[in-house]
Structure formats: C-alpha cells, structure tokens
Design brief:
- The chain is an all-alpha fold.
- The chain contains six helices and no strands.
- It starts with a helix and ends with a helix.
C-alpha cells in the first residue's frame, strides 16, 4: 500500500509538469482538500498520467557489491600495480598486510578486482598526500 504523502508528492510533481498548480489539482479532484481523495483515486490518476505507479524504494547496492553473481578475480597486472604503489608508499610486508586487512575489513588477501580497487584507492590517497 503506497504512502499517501509519497502519492501526493508524485501527483504535485506530475501536475507541475503539466502546468497545474495546487488549486488546479483541487479543481481536478473536485475537492477543497486533497487529503479527502482516496489513495486508489490518487494511484489511478498517477498511473493515467505516467503509465506507472510509484516506484518501490529499494536501496542501491553498496559500493563494490552489485546484484550480479559474476566475480572477477584480480590479475597479474593488478598485483603488479599494488606492488608498485606499496613501494612508492615505502611499506614493508607487515605494513602491507596490516593496510590490506584494514581496507578489506579483516581479510588479508586481495582476491577480486573489487578488493584491488578498495586497497588501491587507499594507497593512491596515501601516495598523493606524501607527494604534496
């Protein structure tokens, strides 16, 4: 069941697109207050104007986590890029493991391209700050 407030916002937005102000919406629904209009009538009007109802509010996937089940493993070029970035940052083996563990929230091995991007973006920020 859609929220009345969301429906009214959508009706007002679509009405503005059609050059209708708040008073014109009252005239269209033949009522002094839009709060008296039923939710079904609001939905029918919105669907008649747009061809669809309200969209479901679903959160976007977290960064690096798509809805795809496809996982791309990190390649040799990615590991070479990381090794070069660690060398520029002057991090030894233990510092590298600690940094990777912090970036990957407990895991100490870069396996996927998403892992590579998380680690490399942090390293790139460190190297930029050192070069300033």
């Amino acid at each position: 069941m859609p929220d009345r407030a969301k429906l009214l916002r959508a009706i007002h937005a679509e009405g503005r697109k059609r050059g209708m102000d708040h008073d014109a919406l009252h005239d269209m629904f033949k009522t002094p207050s839009l709060s008296t209009v039923s939710i079904d009538e609001l939905e029918r009007t919105l669907k008649g104007w747009t061809g669809k109802g309200l969209r479901r509010n679903a959160p976007l996937p977290r960064r690096g986590y798509g809805s795809s089940t496809f996982v791309e493993l990190a390649g040799l070029e990615d590991f070479a890029t990381l090794a070069n970035a660690f060398a520029v940052a002057q991090m030894n083996g233990e510092a590298q493991k600690t940094f990777i563990r912090r970036q990957l929230r407990g895991r100490d091995t870069v396996r996927t391209v998403a892992d590579f991007h998380k680690v490399f973006s942090g390293l790139r920020a460190i190297n930029r700050r050192r070069n300033q």
